[in-house]
Write a structure and sequence with these properties.
Length: 457
């Protein structure tokens, strides 16, 4: 269907005083004695295009209601009221799709909770139009960042026989019937599709390490799955995970890469999405642009876990979860550190080994590992990473201590046998950084179809 994007209509001033054809959905329809006005949007722009209809013309305005899809032909002219903008004096309007009176988006303002019940329609609102435009720009910035630095994009498997985090919170993958007879886990899986237990991967890291230990610098960008029963505004059961992995790198290199990447993403959004940022600033987070400017310009804090615990213990705050060296940082602790103390992104480093994954490099103190989480105000953790344990004996010992099956990790262990090298990487949750950049406070509002506990639409 030949037509011009509404985004192009607003950008291209040479179209003024020419005949143009646009398509879109009617956002609002207004009627006066001699004229009728439509606001239409085709999704390419946050701004709606006004269509002006002379009621003396042949155009039948009675059928033009909000929610309908239309094709409009007319002359593009400077807007009569909204100076600096443009509008169309319609000569012909074709109704492409009618919309009945029960169209749920007719109200001027619907709550985000209500819109969550309408995943099939909510992208037609300004909020979700802006969220998904930013999400797209963030994704593209991630690819550009890594591609321009000699990283190779690798696709790691989604079905896996090993649990990367060693935590066992995986969705199972099976073709066995619900009445499949079994007496033990082994027997259950023995004649399953893969002949062994399989699940949806929580992370592409282990395979990413395989690739990095040959290609040098790689990144993955795909869906990963978590089966934890975490019903919070920051957790999804299916999220998009960006995982760079670098050979010949130590923890400070991993931190530097993560900081550069976050700054690059923020700068790209500033450049490509100024209208969307204005929108989020106005409706969702006052001070958003100042916050992001600060991210782009300031040096992120690097804070030892042990020091973080000292700060938390001396804080004049009644935390719900008590703080002791060895505890995992809860959201309230992370927020205190980033929002109250440093007021900017903070890399917490060198966590106790007991609360972190088996693959992290063990520090010389025997108590901590070379791990880092990047905490940001408002969202908390958006990145988790580490230098990996490159020493075979130490790695085997950590796996034994955590009661893991050595057999399932033979490929991973082989990397430590054949030309091992210091290496490391991190994982960034795409939805977490989109939340941070847009100021949306619930992760369900930055992904098309959120998968969460008890929710599969
Ligand atoms: O800290 P995580 O669990 O680290 C890993 O998976 C490592 N294998 C990464 C690596 O070193 N290659 O997860 C990394 C990031 C988190 O910081 C968070 O942004 C995101 O993934 N994430 C989630 N996002 C949404 N919903 C969930 N349930 C998430 N779990 C982790």
């Amino acid at each position: 269907m030949k037509h011009i994007d509404i985004a192009e209509i607003f950008k291209n001033s040479s179209l003024i005083n020419t005949t143009v054809t646009v398509c879109g959905w009617i956002r609002t329809a207004r009627d006066s004695k001699n004229m009728a006005f439509l606001e239409i949007n085709d999704g390419t722009s946050l701004k709606h295009l006004q269509v002006v209809i002379d009621k003396a013309s042949e155009i039948n305005v009675a059928n033009l209601k909000s929610g309908c899809s239309v094709k409009v032909e007319g002359i593009l002219v400077p807007a009569a009221v909204n100076t600096g903008s443009v509008e169309i004096n319609a000569t012909q309007i074709t109704l492409l799709g009618d919309c009945p009176g029960d169209y749920p988006l007719q109200k001027k303002k619907s709550t985000l909770e209500f819109l969550r019940t309408l995943p099939e329609l909510r992208l037609r609102t300004n909020t979700f139009n802006a969220v998904f435009r930013v999400r797209s720009v963030v994704s593209s910035a991630i690819h550009n960042f890594f591609q321009s630095r000699n990283f190779v994009y690798i696709n790691t498997p989604l079905i896996t026989g090993s649990d990367c985090e060693g935590a066992g919170e995986m969705f199972r993958v099976t073709t066995n019937g619900y009445d499949h007879p079994y007496h033990s886990e082994e027997e259950y899986y023995a004649n399953d599709f893969f002949g062994k237990k399989a699940g949806l991967s929580v992370s592409g890291q282990l395979e990413g390490e395989v690739a990095a230990m040959a290609m040098g610098k790689i990144y993955t960008f795909g869906p990963t799955f978590r089966a934890e029963n975490s019903n919070t505004p920051r957790h999804l059961a299916e999220f998009w995970h960006v995982e760079p992995e670098v050979a010949f790198a130590e923890l400070p290199d991993v931190i530097e890469l993560a900081e550069d990447m976050v700054k690059y993403i923020v700068n790209t959004v500033f450049e490509k999405c100024p209208t969307e940022l204005d929108f989020f600033e106005r409706f969702f987070e006052k001070g958003l642009k100042e916050k992001l400017k600060n991210v782009a310009e300031s040096k992120f804090e690097v804070l030892e876990y042990t020091r973080a615990i000292e700060i938390l213990k001396s804080a004049d705050v009644d935390f719900k979860y008590p703080v002791e060296w060895g505890c995992d940082l809860q959201t309230e602790h992370e927020r205190y550190i980033t929002e109250q103390v440093f007021k900017k992104p903070v890399f917490v480093t060198n966590y106790p080994k007991a609360i972190k994954s088996f693959y992290m490099k063990q520090n010389a103190d025997g108590k901590t590992v070379a791990a880092t989480d990047l905490l940001v105000p408002g969202v908390g953790e958006i990145i988790g990473g580490s230098e990996r344990e490159a020493n075979m004996d130490k790695l085997l010992k950590a796996m034994e201590d955590k009661g893991m099956s050595i057999d399932a990790y033979q490929d991973y262990l082989a990397l430590r046998k054949y030309g091992t090298a210091p290496h490391g990487g991190f994982g960034l949750g795409l939805e977490r950084i989109v939340m941070y950049i847009t100021g949306m406070s619930n992760i369900r509002d930055v992904i098309l179809y959120p998968r969460t506990v008890g929710n599969l639409r």
